[in-house]
Amino acid sequence: MLRYLLEKEIKLFFRNPFLPKLVALLPFIALAIFPLVANLDIKDLKIAVIDQDKSPYSRQLVEKVLSSPYFQLSGNFTNYAEAQRSVEDDRSDLIMEIPAYFERDLVKEGNVQVFVAINAVDGMKGGMGGSYLTGILTDFNNNIRAEWIQTPSRLSTPHINVFSAFRFNPTLRYIYFMIPALIVMILAMFSGFLPALNIVEEKENGTIEQMNVTPVKKSTFILSKLIPYWVIGFLIVNVCVLVAWLFYGFWLRGSLLTLYPFTIIFTFTFCGLGLVVSNYANALQQAMIIMFFFITTFIFLSGLFTPFDNMPQWAQVIGNISPLKYIIQVTRMVYLKGAVFTEMLPQFAALCLQAVFFNGWAILSYRKRN
Amino acid sequence: MKFFTCWQGKRRRQNRKFAAFSSFVHKEFLHIFRDMWTTLILLLLPVLMTVLFGFGITTEIKNGKVAVLDPSKDVATQGIVDKLATSEYFTIAYRVNTEQEIDDLFKQSKIGMAIVFNEKFYENMLHTGQAQILLLADATDPNTASMLNTYAGMLIASYQMELSKNLGTTPLQITPELRLLYNPTMKGSYSTAPGVLGLVLILICAMMTSVAIVKEKQMGTMEVLLVSPLRPITIILAKTIPYFVLSLVNLTSILLLSYFLLEVPFVGSFLLLIAVCLLYIFVALAFGILISTLVNSQLVAMLISGMVLMLPVIMLSGLLFPVNNMPLVLQWFSCVVPARWFITAIKSVMIKGAGFDAIIKEFLILLGMAVVLLGVSIKKFKNRLE
Amino acid sequence: MMTIKATELTKTFGNFTAVDHITFAVQKGEIFGFLGANGAGKTTAMRMLCGLSKPTSGEATVAGFDVRTQSEQIKKNIGYMSQKFALYENLKVWENIRLYAGIYGIKGKEIGKRIDMILEQLGFEKEKNTLVKELPLGWKQKLAFSVSIIHEPQIVFLDEPTGGVDPVTRRQFWELIYQAADRGITAFVTTHYMDEAEYCNRVSIMVDGRIDALDTPKNLKYQYNANTMDEVFHMLARKAKTAKS
Q: What is the per-residue pLDDT for A263?
């Protein structure tokens, strides 16, 4: 029986004028283009400089700031009001004001302030810009100090050497962070939207009613709907991995085989969610909007774009329900850390639990009669 | 006299036309609101999303989990660890004894950063200048990693400063005084609220209108409307007006939530803000209409207005990723995403309090988009008639 | 032998009683007309008999099985053709036949034969590879009927099968029903074409969820002193509280 139903699903899929194209092209385009977009490498921040001192030190400082890859001069200003206007018009991201008598006060008083004002509408950009600039100032400060305190006898000043190392992504490339996330996002969209819409479409056309008076079992009918999307999900993962490699030379540090069981379970889970939605929705529009809500919520609260640990507690609680949270951890761990299956058992357990939950709910809520 | 009757006749005709139009609109309203569930979902969804994203999406670094490997266990290492622990950026999650443990913690993604002190830290710090700290960060997420790294560095530097002050050695010091403009508490919601507004409005509007018209096509009722004396533009308008009203309700609820719950300031002119939002809703509805004239099945209309549209709106609008970080070609491409212009304009008006002159470019672009989208869809619509 | 037996069958939705204690029985091989205005409760009653909807109270057996507890067995023994056209529009004619043949457990080799048989019976040989959505409505309905009895069920339920179909095709459609009845398939038909009522062996007329009349068309006309079923129907329908059309 299942065989005939599957035959029908496959024929209908390929006869749809839009679906096969969507499945073939969207993952490809998304993985080829979006890693370039999802770029939060903060560089070339536009800085407005107000140098009231014009001393050798102040010039050195400005030069040092501008020579870093993070900053780019938007203009030299003579007063703060003008500089602020440039921020308002989005011509500058931040302002650095060096007060008059900067050099003199630094040497004589031993303490001087530099004013930095940052456009913090975008919190991330503001925070990063601020910390980069502070870093450069500290560095500059240390150099000056070293110039003045040359005598070894003064070494009793406490001195700490700080070294930094970045694990797993030493060049700090943002696309390495985003590619695993994009793979998951595309997979979630396909396995969430397509089965849900497919079933609701049959509801609207009345064909599902015809099915309901036949001896087809609910499990058989649901399986015939899901199997094609499981296959599609699996293909999409492979296409994405391949495109990431072709376009960005980015291959998994771990094994692709390790990734498979997780993505397969995840596809089950999301298809299950789609089924639940389709069981409650009576119209395509309803199904789409509800699914859209779940998918965006799950995407945004899963740590896909923004770090999970930074979210408020209650948002983390919701995020814990999101299957995306676990699959994203897994793809990133396999991609960047070369994790093996045994290291990701908690994630596997969580995904399995969710798969059982959503599919169980889907089967229970599917009614052949009312 | 003759002129007068003529004029009266014309007016009567117009009245009749208007009556037909308004009864048609009335029918559309009934049609939508009869489906209680869909209406409820359409009204509640934006509320939920605003709350979830407004509070949930945050770029502030808080409570980064840290592992400490401290073989010295002296005053200085303790002081530094305390300094990190009391800052809001870090939580000391693990104290470990070997590098292997750190490795495992990293692999299992249990920590974001590890701090490794060398032996006899305090002694080295005072006498040999060989005191060493190694900051290891999990750069899977490069931005979080470099922010944690910078914060840790700053905290260590400030500890060092305090110490030298206590020891009486005050070197030349430059203190940066940081001022955060517009968003002094660095709230994520300042940038997410306009983003959510841009995302929710366009997707909901496009989904609603595109399906409404395609459904009518699929059920064959469109033919009935087309043979009626109503002009195509009238039909399109009548179909969109109810959704326009729905969108206004959504707009109101999102704005109220942003102001009262997310505490996003409304610095600029309220009227200007509303004007920009209305224009944007108009663009979104026009977009939906265009989709509906291009496709013939509800499923395809849904997939285009929901799934295909969702990606560029999230990725290319500047909602999450700054537009000027993108490669040039994609920056050009992002110009056709209405959400990009909307979000920029809204941020300027709402948070920076900019006037109309500051957003005139965005306003004109959105206006142009509305005209083009509507023009193309009416043309397409007419072509189908002939 | 009675293939359908309903006793005090009732369905309520909230305060609204769609089917109000109806009792009737249908004989094997009979063509049983189930008449009523829109909203009189025909479809609801039929959906209960098919196991698509649970009765609120009352009893019914279909093909000897209880509609409450044995709906899955019922489904193996009935065919159903709904008001809404329910074949897959984007499947070809033969693919639709194959699908339902497969669903009803007809063996692979047998399926090919059935397809040819149905195509021949309907005179659709040329349309074998046509997408169903490209067929005219009447053809679709004939195909849907043939598909609904592909497994030779004991009973076939037809819910307004000829809505919107031209008179000639309607005649042909009734030919198909007679052929099926000759093979012993009971046909349970709802319709609001009163001329079709004349084709039935017996008809029942539903008004406001109740069966107000049940007999052969001839007896009904005699009883109500009418010339046509149409007149009979109008006399009964005038009493209705909720008549909509």
A: 94
